[in-house]
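#struct-help
A.M.: can someone run this one for me? Single chain, 691 residues.
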Amino acid sequence: MIKNKISDTNQQNKQQNQSKKRFGLEHWHLVTLFLVLFDLAASVGAYLFALWLRFDCRFNDIPEMYLMAWLYFAPIHAIISIVVYWRMHLYQSIWRFASFVELERITLSSVILCVAHGVLISVIFRPMPITYYVVGAAVQFMLVLGIRFGYRFILLERSRRDRAIQKAVANRVMLIGAGAAGQLILRDLHNTKEVNETVCCIIDDNRNKWGRFIDGVPIVGGREDILLNVEKYNIEKIYLAMPSATPQQVRDILNICQETTCELKNLPAVYTMMDESITAKSLKEVDVEDLLGRDPVRVNMADIYRFITGKVILVTGGGGSIGSELCRQIAQHHPKKLIVFDIYENNAHAIGLELKDKYPELDLEVLIGSVRDSRRLNQVFERFKPDVVYHAAAHKHVPLMEESPCESIKNNAIGTYKTAFAAMMNGCKRFVLISTDKAVNPTNIMGASKRLCEMIIQSFDRKIRESKAHELFMMHIHRANTEDSMLNSIRVVAKPKTDFVAVRFGNVLGSNGSVIPRFKEQIAKGGPVTVTHPDIIRYFMTIPEAVSLVLQAGAFADGGEIFVLDMGSPVKIDTLARNLIRLSGLKPDVDIKITYTGLRPGEKLFEEKLMSEEGLKTTPNHLIHIGCPIPFDTDEFLEQLQQLMNAAYDGREDDIRELVTKVVTTYHPAGEHGSEDKGTAYEQQMTAAMM
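D.P.: on it. Structure tokens below:
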């Protein structure tokens, strides 16, 4: 019973709402009613005015035959006018946005009414004076046009007054770029009330545009006039709207803008072919990547496509910053199956959801496991038989690994060996190790562990080429129980043919642990920004660039190579920090202090891409080089590696560095005699080169 009453009440409410919608008057209905009444008066009055004007503005001089003809035809003409205007949608248009289309419709309507009036009044009643037809039609046209566009003009004037009032308190903006993108952003800023910003001047290098205006804003000069006009117009923000500019051009302009205290925003190059979608919201904060001034890395996508398409791909550490980007780019090239393998479930789950949403047709497996676990690795390799492995799983934080050297060896070196062994024994065609420039002349245990990884894949390659793969033993700790271990499948592949290669590159902007997010957090908190040393130097590359080169290097691989990615020119971390502060519209050492904390354990002033003993070979991609391997005794190395594993799993931290020093002859722990002199000499060399 109660339910029925509630249902009846709801039904009544719905009917009331529907009746309100059906019979209620909206604002535009009232505007339409006003326009109809005005048009009735205009259609009648326009021709009476024409008749009055024809007879010298004396009403008594108008002949009765003309006056009566007008009087009898006026109601007919009024009705015809309303019908024509309605059919031409002159009552449904939103006049605050009236444009050339509405002008065309009014003109066409006036022509139709002029002809209809002239024909009908002449046929039904009598011919009228020529000036009656011409002046009447002209006056009616002007009245109809004036009332509609006058409304738009009033709104524009009101918005201009509001803008003038707002201009006094709005953020003052300089727009760089007077092209199509700049015009769209300018008009969007002018038309958006919610944006409390006003464009005061425009900069463009095209001299033909100087001294001219866009939407009332002057184009005041080229890039050399930026600083002058920032001061002249009291600019607070600078918007760079040049999506088709080269990275070098963007860097040059941004370097000039950094000398101001203005907040900077940039329109990404992705909008080059998307002009219709450009608004002020398309602008993004200027990133440090924009200041590197290097052309984006180009790769031969056809090579990568041929290499990956139709293959089973395994990515270890697939949830990390490099591993997840590898998964994204691999998914684009239609692999037969993509396997994401990671020990950290949150990252693995996140990349899994992302890939499933973006590539619903992708055959994806997200697996949890550790590269230290031989049994788990063998289960994965036996089940899925991956064709290609990208080994990105690693501990990489230098200070943390200095405090836990055994974990660095267990995860990086021994984990790489176990993964490589599983790949070889299960018929994997290619194994690509993700290495680092910290493996070159390492001064920390993390870099030394990555050099061990490079030596491991070189050892595997050498043994396979010499048909001695049987001499590669399975490294395991669980000696008491070999059930289900890899020992039981050690002869799965009698003659393995896996190609083992490494790809070495430097720091990656935006990766987990990258210095950039840390600097941004410190700036957001008001400082201080902490830099370890004023002269510390690093190579940088974006994550997508590094990963695309890794994929292409994997396609180039023939076995045993250490591919070295061209990272461009090195960058001072101190300069990076100061640029980030300026990009935030603040002054280094004034608004945000920079403090130097000293080099952390195992950290060095510079990173090298190659050892001095290594040479370079070229590849079809000029940004990818091949380092000639340093010779070492493979058998001795494998024995030493077994000792390292035992020491690491026994937790003998006091012995581990000494053992690593014997294995990696280029490893000189920070603080050893000679390493500081070498760092100082290299520092002086790099500083001189960058000046």
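A.M.: thanks! The longest helix spans residues 130-167.
D.P.: also worth noting: The chain has a mean pLDDT of 79.
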